[in-house]
């Protein structure tokens, strides 16, 4: 039995740590116009989905015993693409719709499979820590090296922002936020400097630089807010002895020195601030805050309320494919909350948010020392998903969200 446990942990470690590599490979192929018949990312994620689904089905009685909700959600998002066939009259549209829904289904499967294997003591608490650490190392390597070599893509047309070879800005954006919280938590708990802890400080500095380089308002603001929250918590708990205070001050000063030096040298970052100032001056407050997503929302709402069978479409949605083909706005509003409503109906919104709110409410000791980072990550991911989007229907970001949710349900086993 012990051998099986170790194999499961190795399997899941590999499946999730490679997700940044998958996204980078996709972006690399796209950047150099290398066409493949099937996306590398789709192949890898379908393999991951298949493994998770088999484990889920094999243990479905245990899942139902605790709650019917995961089964209802997965069934809904498998059936609805078939239901939307009546709008599109095209089998290809059903398959295209399933590409979207399976990305969200994978989040639910990650959480439920982790729950199943943890209850059977197949997963140890440290597996999540190891996965996040591995993702952090891979993300830094796949981001910083292209920047140093001067290859990769800018985020915006004016040259502002840098995303290496990653496909979606928001995918990378929320990943960097989650990793910043993870490594900040580690660094602020350092009691003595070992080789591993020095590496953790270096990784925190690197991830902080990555957050600034991507040039998103979110990645500029959230790390600052999170740092203030952590420092305030440490002071409130009065758990800073003189030695620990010295290490914290040294770590923070080191990070600030590196960041300031980097900002002074980086033309990309300067263009970022120029872009922010330009948009602040030219857009209204709401459009500036939501990056014009509020305008997309207004257009999509007007399409929905004037549509035939408005009530049915509002309750059950029309699917991403129909919106792209007939509503003229493309597939996404880029705020997951509203994309659920307009694509899969108000029913989907209720099911999904009840599921994730339940995870938060039922999480034991969520403000305790061991789980605090997951709580902060979880709140940030949900807010980011709601107001910035590209999380629940994205491969990399969805995987990160699923892993963060696993941290919330973790019983902190040794």
Automatic annotation (TrEMBL):
<dbReference type="InterPro" id="IPR049504">
    <property type="entry name" value="O-antigen_lig"/>
</dbReference>
<feature type="transmembrane region" description="Helical">
    <location>
        <begin position="98"/>
        <end position="118"/>
    </location>
</feature>
<feature type="transmembrane region" description="Helical">
    <location>
        <begin position="376"/>
        <end position="409"/>
    </location>
</feature>
<feature type="transmembrane region" description="Helical">
    <location>
        <begin position="172"/>
        <end position="190"/>
    </location>
</feature>
<protein>
    <submittedName>
        <fullName>O-antigen ligase like membrane protein</fullName>
    </submittedName>
</protein>
<feature type="transmembrane region" description="Helical">
    <location>
        <begin position="130"/>
        <end position="152"/>
    </location>
</feature>
<feature type="transmembrane region" description="Helical">
    <location>
        <begin position="220"/>
        <end position="235"/>
    </location>
</feature>
<feature type="transmembrane region" description="Helical">
    <location>
        <begin position="197"/>
        <end position="214"/>
    </location>
</feature>
<feature type="transmembrane region" description="Helical">
    <location>
        <begin position="247"/>
        <end position="269"/>
    </location>
</feature>
<keyword id="KW-0812">Transmembrane</keyword>
<dbReference type="Pfam" id="PF13425">
    <property type="entry name" value="O-antigen_lig"/>
</dbReference>
<feature type="transmembrane region" description="Helical">
    <location>
        <begin position="337"/>
        <end position="356"/>
    </location>
</feature>
<keyword id="KW-0436">Ligase</keyword>
<feature type="transmembrane region" description="Helical">
    <location>
        <begin position="38"/>
        <end position="60"/>
    </location>
</feature>
<keyword id="KW-1133">Transmembrane helix</keyword>
<feature type="transmembrane region" description="Helical">
    <location>
        <begin position="304"/>
        <end position="325"/>
    </location>
</feature>
<feature type="transmembrane region" description="Helical">
    <location>
        <begin position="12"/>
        <end position="32"/>
    </location>
</feature>
<dbReference type="GO" id="GO:0016874">
    <property type="term" value="F:ligase activity"/>
</dbReference>
<keyword id="KW-0472">Membrane</keyword>
<feature type="transmembrane region" description="Helical">
    <location>
        <begin position="67"/>
        <end position="86"/>
    </location>
</feature>
